[in-house]
Amino acid sequence: MGEETFHVFLFHPPDGLLRIFLIEIVFCNCILWGKHEACCGRVHFKVFITLNNKKSKRELYSNICCLIFYYSSKLGMLLFFRSAGDGPDIYKGKICSLKARALLIDMEEGVVNEILQGPLRDVFDSKQLITDVSGSGNNWAVGYKVYGCQYRENIVEKLRKTAEHCDCLQCFFIIHSMGGGTGSGLGTFVLNLLEDEFPEVYRFVTSVYPSGEDDVITSPYNSVLAMKELNEHADCVLPIENESLFDIVNKIHHMVNSGKLGSTVKPNSLVTSSAGTTKKVQEKPFDAMNNIVANLLLNLTSSARFEGSLNMDLNEISMNLVPFPRLHYLVSSLTPLYTLADVNIPSRR
Amino acid sequence: MSIVAVQLGQCGNQIGQEVFNTICGDVRGTHGLCSKKENEAYHDACTERFFSEAESGVPVARAVLVDMEPKVISQTLSIAARSGHWKYNDQSHFCQKQGSGNNWANGYSVHGPRNKEVIMNLVRKEVEKCDRLSGFFTIMSMAGGTGSGLGAFVTQCLRDAFPTSFILNHVIWPYGTGEVIVQNYNSVLTLSHLYQSSDALLVHENDVIHKICAQLMHIKQISFRDVNQVIAHQLGSVFQPAHTAEASLHYSRNPLGDLMETLVPHPEFKMLGLRNIPQMPENSLAYSTFSWHGLLKHLRQMLIANAKMEEGIDWQVRPPCPGSSISSSHSTNKLLHFNTSIANLVILRGKDTHSVDLGSFRDPSLYTSWLNPQDAFNEWKTPRAFNKYEKSASLVSNSQFLLKPLDNVVGKAWNMFASKAYVHQYTKFGIEEEDFLDSFTALEQVISSYTNL
């Protein structure tokens, strides 16, 4: 998986408030059986959403926009996208008529609007967004009770529409943060909703936990309230901590720039790199960290997207790692963080 | 008479494809080392058993492919078609989209009943294509969800729908350090259910085949494909046509029936093991010669000492002397791990098979006391060499060889069950704790029967 990477971005809209972004991607094993023998060529896909201001690197946890776009076989592609339109799905390296099986929810519009103006505008359409104007103010109760009740029917309807496009719905993937208002509050409300509306479909949650040095004062309250919901209603939780991500990024940075072995590290193999970009943009502070999370989720789902001699699907991961219903928190690790370009250098064991 | 293969789950489909590949390659090969007439008879018998003719002239395998997710079946079908020498029927497969999630209960209680009609229809269609049905050969693994759970259900359905046909289940015993944490639960549930509906269980252990690949075939990076090819070679050496003792002029028409008749005299003892000798990498074949005497000596000791392959055999183990008292022979057995057999079948393929003496296998001390060696031992021969080996011998044996692995698996499953770990995943789909307990009881019964041979 060394060459194909993709970015995940954090958002810092100009008004300085931290926004929570919730994206929900609905998987589906929707396979066009028998007709599509040829594999599509590998297509890199980069999502670039420029950051608006230069907030300090210390606001690490808040916003995550995690978009998984990777396909090298038709089978794998249809897991995450659906074909909407008559023309070819990919033409000259650009996505023409693929729509992501995703729902983007945020109580503040700036972030979602930026996505719709960026290179991903064709992949999402307006029917997949739910936004409001004022935000949740880092308050779990506002996200859960106020916006939950207000948007309940809207969310259910949009979920049903997206689910109807799938031949066979396998699981829901929820990505949010725990420290803010929308992500944790409205996010756990949606989790509740999914359990009511689609009880047999697995719910995988990727949660970004606040680190010790975050500056949202109410993040402990938000996290604890959200954890209670996760305990009861999620099938599997993958916690991610901002501080560890930061450490990894620093380690790589140190390795690349240290001079001793730095020159021999393959630049495209970094877990944080952005190979094959569609346009040249400077690296922003959270790109690297989000890229690690994106790589993690990519590798987790790779067995479902590609054929192999021993396939391990997501529901198998859940089956094997969850011995008792409430003990469903999985710790994830990733290796290697980079590969060395010079084959004569002995590899680390 | 024809055998219909039912390939279940990822493991079943991958192995099934290798088996048909090996059989087809052997039949088409020019290393028969026998007369043309013999070769043609062999070819005809084999084709009747495993393939049916299609309009295009390419033989179509008599197989039904079943899996709960589509990737493996599509891969299997395309690899077979690409070979150009044989293929699967385009209609004889069934797959769903979502998989079984390594959950036996999901395969047995959910996918089984839901898809019973469709799967049995496919099987019926394959059966109708046969002139005479010898029986079913199902290939599955025990550790997963589809192969084990759905496989147990399908075996039951086959038994109900075809009560007079033979069913031979080929079961893959998972690695001891396998990748599926609940494999012991799945194995216990599968074995206890298969014991009721199947006629015989032919077992291949992943650990053993892995060792064969590493030590005998000298493969450095062992992939599942290598393992599957060794398994396919061993299965081919059993199922390819051979002359039985009664019908020495033409090939046996009833392979499964003959197998069951010789090896499963009592319904309590259904576990069969397979040993094949010699096994070596293909490029060493040209430089090796063997004598039947040497091969059979090794094979016999492999049986007695419960060795899995021809290297590392413990030559110290000897069968007990016939005159010794019961208690001392019992203790000697325990000390030296002597492998008592119920029944054995030796299959010889290649040059000079008519001159081979198999008297050493008729030794009464190898067998349990309640069966006469005359009935317990059988041999099949054919002068036609198999798969480029000038001489090869296979031993299918109903003996205590699987006792230790079975004990291991049941022990581990019981430990896990004592703390009720993972049980909620099974209860979710309708397998309650009583079902687990029933399975444990059934397997303990089997273990004690085999121990007291």
UniProtKB/TrEMBL annotation, chain B:
It is found in: Cell projection, Cilium; Cytoplasm, Cytoskeleton, Microtubule organizing center, Centrosome, Centriole; Nucleus. Residues 47-246 form the Tubulin/FtsZ GTPase domain. The keyword Cytoplasm applies. PROSITE patterns: TUBULIN. Pfam families: Tubulin. GO terms for biological process: cell projection organization; microtubule-based process. One of its GO terms (cellular component) is cytoplasm. Its main location: other. It comes from the Eukaryota. GO terms for molecular function: GTP binding; structural constituent of cytoskeleton. Keywords: Cell projection, Cilium biogenesis/degradation, Cytoplasm, Cytoskeleton, GTP-binding, Microtubule, Nucleotide-binding, Nucleus. Gene3D superfamilies: Helix hairpin bin, Tubulin/FtsZ, GTPase domain. Its cofactor is Mg(2+). Dimer of alpha and beta chains. A typical microtubule is a hollow water-filled tube with an outer diameter of 25 nm and an inner diameter of 15 nM. Alpha-beta heterodimers associate head-to-tail to form protofilaments running lengthwise along the microtubule wall with the beta-tubulin subunit facing the microtubule plus end conferring a structural polarity. Microtubules usually have 13 protofilaments but different protofilament numbers can be found in some organisms and specialized cells. Acts as a positive regulator of hedgehog signaling and regulates ciliary function. Belongs to the tubulin family. This is Tubulin delta chain.
